[in-house]
Specification:
Blueprint: H1 6-13, H2 17-24, H3 35-47, H4 54-61, E1 66-71, H5 77-92, E2 96-101, H6 106-118, E3 123-126, H7 133-141, E4 146-149, E5 159-163, H8 165-178, E6 184-189, H9 194-209, E7 219-222, H10 228-239, E8 249-252, H11 255-267, E9 277-281, H12 285-288, E10 295-298, H13 301-316, E11 328-331, E12 334-336
Helix pairs in contact: 1-2, 1-3, 5-13, 8-9, 10-11
Length: 343
C-alpha cells in the first residue's frame, strides 16, 4: 500500500504542499494560517493515515517529535503505569515516546542516553538512578531539555516532577500510630535515592513527634536488585517469631516490595491486620483485591505524567506562551484507607 505523502494531502484539500508542511510541523500560527485551515489539514492527514518521516522531519525542522523516556524499573507497576500516562500526554501534542528501563543500573542508563542522543530525541524524561548525576549534568551542559520524575538530585539545577514523599510517609506512620500500633517497621530501598531517603525521614519524624524512639532494627534497607529472598528475609526478621514479634505494623516504601511482603506474610499464616498492619506506597490493582485490601499512599500518576510532558515541551519550545525555563514541582499524594490498618 502506498504511503500518504504531503502532496497527497495538499491535492485532497487543494492547497500547497508547503502549507500542509507548516501545519503538520506545528507552525500554522507562525505563518498566520487560520485555525479552520489547520483543523482541516490535521483531520485530512488523520483520515488518510499520514505517517511522517521522523528523520526527514528532523532534518527540516530540527525536531523529531520524539521524547526519550528512561524509567527506573519496568517490573515495578508504578513505573509501567507512569510510562503509560506520559505516552498518552505526549500523543496529545503529536509526540511519540521511546521507552527505556534502566533497571536502576547507572551504566545501563548511560548507554540508553547515548542511544537516545543518536536517535535525536527532542528531550528527555528520566527517573534517574543513583550515581547518574554526571549523566544528567552532561545533558544540561549540552543545553538539552531534561525533566526528572519520581526522584531528583538536590545539587543539580534541573526541572523535576516529584511527590512530597516526607509528608506521605509521615501521614501513613501517624495513621498507624493512631490505630494503636507502636512497633512500626519500614522496609525500603537504598537511601542514596532522595525519594527513599525522604520516605524514611517522614517515617522517623512521625515516630519522634509522637514520643517514640526510632529503632534502627525496624528499618530494613533492601538492594535495588531485591527479589523474594530479600523481602522474605526482612519479613521473617520482623514478624516471623510469634513469641518475639518485633513489628506490629509495616510501611512498605514501594509496591514491588509490598506485594512480595504481603505474599510472605500470608505464607507465614499471619493475618492482616490482626497480626500485622500494612501500609504501602502506590495504589496498585493487586492491593484492592487482597483478603484485607491494603491502605495505600496513592501517587497522582496522571498529573505527574501530564506535568512532565508539559514542562519538557516548554523547554523544547521556549517560545511557548508563559513557559518558565525551570520548574521544580512537588505534588501531594492521596492517603487511601482500607482494611489493612485495622480499626
Amino acid at each position: 500500500m502506498k504511503k500518504t505523502s504531503l502532496n497527497d494531502i495538499a491535492k485532497q484539500l487543494g492547497v500547497s504542499k508547503t502549507l500542509v508542511s507548516f501545519v503538520l510541523n506545528g507552525r500554522g500560527k507562525e505563518f498566520r494560517i487560520s485555525d479552520e485551515v489547520c483543523r482541516k489539514v490535521l483531520e485530512t492527514a488523520k483520515e488518510m493515515n499520514y505517517q511522517p518521516n521522523r528523520i526527514a522531519q528532523g532534518l527540516r525542522t530540527g525536531k523529531t517529535k520524539t521524547i526519550g523516556l528512561i524509567i527506573a524499573d519496568i517490573a515495578n507497576p508504578f513505573f509501567g503505569k507512569l510510562g503509560r500516562e506520559i505516552e498518552k500526554e505526549a500523543a496529545r501534542y503529536g509526540y511519540r515516546i521511546i521507552f527505556c528501563s534502566s533497571d536502576e543500573n547507572p551504566e545501563k542508563s548511560k548507554q540508553q542516553i547515548a542511544m537516545l542522543q543518536q536517535s535525536q530525541v527532542d528531550g528527555y524524561i528520566i527517573s534517574p538512578t543513583i550515581d547518574s548525576e554526571e549523566q544528567i549534568r552532561a545533558l544540561l551542559r549540552a543545553h538539552l531539555p531534561v525533566v526528572l520524575i519520581d526522584r531528583y538530585f538536590p545539587d543539580i539545577e534541573c526541572s523535576y516532577i516529584v511527590v512530597d514523599n516526607l509528608d506521605a510517609a509521615y501521614r501513613a506512620t501517624t495513621h498507624l500510630l493512631a490505630r494503636g500500633r507502636k512497633k512500626i517497621a519500614n522496609i525500603t530501598l537504598n537511601l542514596d535515592l532522595v525519594n527513599m531517603k525522604e520516605r524514611t525521614e517522614g517515617y522517623q519524624k512521625a515516630l519522634l513527634d509522637n514520643g517514640l524512639q526510632v529503632d534502627e532494627k525496624l528499618i530494613k534497607i533492601l538492594p535495588f536488585s531485591h527479589d523474594n529472598t530479600d523481602v522474605n528475609k526482612a519479613i521473617l526478621e520482623l514478624v516471623g517469631d510469634q513469641n518475639d514479634r518485633k513489628a506490629d505494623a509495616i510501611l512498605f516504601s514501594t509496591s514491588k516490595i509490598g506485594v512480595m511482603g504481603i505474599e510472605c506474610i500470608s505464607a507465614l499464616g499471619l493475618r492482616i491486620p490482626e497480626d500485622v498492619a500494612v501500609v504501602s506506597f502506590d495504589n496498585v490493582d493487586a492491593y484492592k483485591i487482597c483478603v484485607s485490601p491494603v491502605t495505600v499512599i496513592g501517587q497522582p500518576l496522571s498529573e505527574i505524567g501530564k506535568k512532565a510532558v508539559q514542562v519538557l515541551l516548554n523547554e523544547i519550545n521556549p517560545s511557548r506562551k508563559n513557559a518558565p525555563k525551570l520548574q521544580q514541582i512537588k505534588l501531594k499524594t492521596e492517603f487511601i484507607v482500607r482494611k489493612s490498618c485495622g480499626a
